[in-house]
TrEMBL record, chain A:
<dbReference type="Pfam" id="PF02597">
    <property type="entry name" value="ThiS"/>
</dbReference>
<dbReference type="InterPro" id="IPR003749">
    <property type="entry name" value="ThiS/MoaD-like"/>
</dbReference>
<protein>
    <submittedName>
        <fullName>Molybdopterin synthase sulfur carrier subunit</fullName>
    </submittedName>
</protein>
<dbReference type="InterPro" id="IPR012675">
    <property type="entry name" value="Beta-grasp_dom_sf"/>
</dbReference>
<dbReference type="InterPro" id="IPR016155">
    <property type="entry name" value="Mopterin_synth/thiamin_S_b"/>
</dbReference>
From TrEMBL, chain B:
<protein>
    <recommendedName>
        <fullName>Molybdopterin synthase catalytic subunit</fullName>
        <ecNumber>2.8.1.12</ecNumber>
    </recommendedName>
</protein>
<keyword id="KW-0501">Molybdenum cofactor biosynthesis</keyword>
<dbReference type="Pfam" id="PF02391">
    <property type="entry name" value="MoaE"/>
</dbReference>
<dbReference type="InterPro" id="IPR003448">
    <property type="entry name" value="Mopterin_biosynth_MoaE"/>
</dbReference>
<comment type="similarity">
    <text>Belongs to the MoaE family.</text>
</comment>
<dbReference type="GO" id="GO:0006777">
    <property type="term" value="P:Mo-molybdopterin cofactor biosynthetic process"/>
</dbReference>
<dbReference type="InterPro" id="IPR036563">
    <property type="entry name" value="MoaE_sf"/>
</dbReference>
<comment type="subunit">
    <text>Heterotetramer of 2 MoaD subunits and 2 MoaE subunits. Also stable as homodimer. The enzyme changes between these two forms during catalysis.</text>
</comment>
<dbReference type="GO" id="GO:0030366">
    <property type="term" value="F:molybdopterin synthase activity"/>
</dbReference>
Amino acid sequence: MEIEVISFGKIAEFIPQQKISLSNVSNTDELKVYLEKDFPALAGIKYKLALNKNIVQSTLNLNNNDVIAIMPPFSGG
Amino acid sequence: MSDKKIKNIFSKGAISPLFIADSISKHSSKTNIGGHSIFMGQVRKDEIDGKLVAAIEYTAYEELALNKMHEIREEIFNKYPLSCMHIHHSLGTIKAGELCLFVFTSSAHRKPAIDACTEVVERIKAELPIWGKEIFENDTHQWKENI
């Protein structure tokens, strides 16, 4: 399946927006492992995922054409 | 309330003190109001490792932030007897000394306005996907972290 990855804040400095083809990755927990392997800088920092504009609280299944956002800790205000 | 349309809280650039004054004056016709509470966030010229913050550049995951803000707004209106609540957050580059956040709550008596204002500010900082990049006077940067 193919998913779109977008990222924000300091994570956007090393993970540009891109489409990723996945095999053997079916949920967001497995995606985290995949991303941290592909982008080692991600492994050392705190981040949250959002799947199709909903913040991921516990693992969710992925589907073709899903949009995943990788978000570092918020710092608005 | 849940059929209410999602309001945009974001605008590009600093929040002008004149906009805030105008916003206050618009409430003079709402004579059931007895108390307003206002929070204004201002970009601080922090010194970090000898470098001074010249500006903060704000970005957001706007759609997610506005959905979340809508949820927070509904929860706050259910919790406190407010007459109204207005929220504005800047995006883009805001210079030190300029305003980047404006939260304005009003109620018949002071307490709900004050408590709702405090709670909304805390929730904006903790729950909205917004990021501040602190730009130093020498053009280097670091990513802001909320305390």
